[in-house]
Specification:
Strand content: under 5%
Radius of gyration: 18 Å
Number of domains: 1
Number of strands: 2
Helix content: 55-70%
Order of helices and strands: HHHHEEHHHHH
Length: about 210
């Protein structure tokens, strides 16, 4: 799954498990946690294989356990945000080492990217997240002039980096032609642009407050 879907579903799943914290989630953290398991992509030069230990339940439970002991229920939505990355998203469109280090087996359906099901999950996640963020009041909060929106820069940077990572080997004109040749790719690109625009506007609103203009 692309960062688009991981971020969107991270918000959806975190909201579902937030309980009384709905409306109080630190959304930049939720979105970033939604893509954090893919940090292994940055470690490939060190021999780390994608979809291995950073996509396991044990790895993230170990990292979150101290925070759960201290904050308990407050941490659960953030734990769910990161776990859904591989237990939901990558499980359906890929294969992950879900039970590392206890099992070296990979679990999942390993669909091609992009596939009809994969793109459907991405867009469904974005639409569902948009509906929830609007009804929950988070949309209004994230678009107000408020310094608390400055951290939205981090998921924006992560999303833009993932988009450039996919396009880095393509000259611009062939890339645009390639994208336009497939309705699935066109849909994905437009959805990425939509999410990136929202994150950019939210970040800009935070900076407006900071710089007072």
């Amino acid at each position: 799954m692309f960062f688009l879907g991981h971020m969107a579903w991270a918000y959806v799943w975190a909201w579902m498990f937030a309980g009384k914290l709905r409306g109080k989630l630190f959304i930049p953290a939720v979105l970033m946690l939604g893509v954090m398991p893919d940090v292994d992509l940055l470690l490939e030069d060190f021999g780390v294989v994608h979809h291995t230990f950073t996509h396991s339940l044990f790895f993230w439970f170990t990292l979150f356990a101290p925070f759960m002991l201290v904050s308990r229920r407050k941490v659960i939505p953030y734990f769910v945000a990161v776990v859904q990355h591989f237990a939901f998203g990558d499980f359906f469109v890929g294969k992950v080492m879900l039970f590392w280090p206890f099992s070296p087996l990979y679990f999942g359906f390993k669909l091609t990217m992009p596939s009809i099901l994969g793109v459907t999950l991405e867009i469904a996640g974005l639409l569902l997240a948009t509906g929830i963020i609007y009804l929950n009041g988070d949309l209004k909060r994230l678009l107000t002039v408020d310094t608390r929106n400055i951290p939205m820069f981090f998921p924006l940077f992560a999303l833009l980096t993932s988009m450039l990572f996919l396009a880095v080997d393509w000259p611009l004109i062939p890339l645009v032609t390639y994208i336009g040749s497939s309705p699935l790719l066109t849909t994905l690109v437009l959805a990425h642009i939509l999410l990136a625009t929202f994150l950019a506007v939210s970040t800009a609103q935070g900076l407006r407050k900071l710089l007072k203009f």
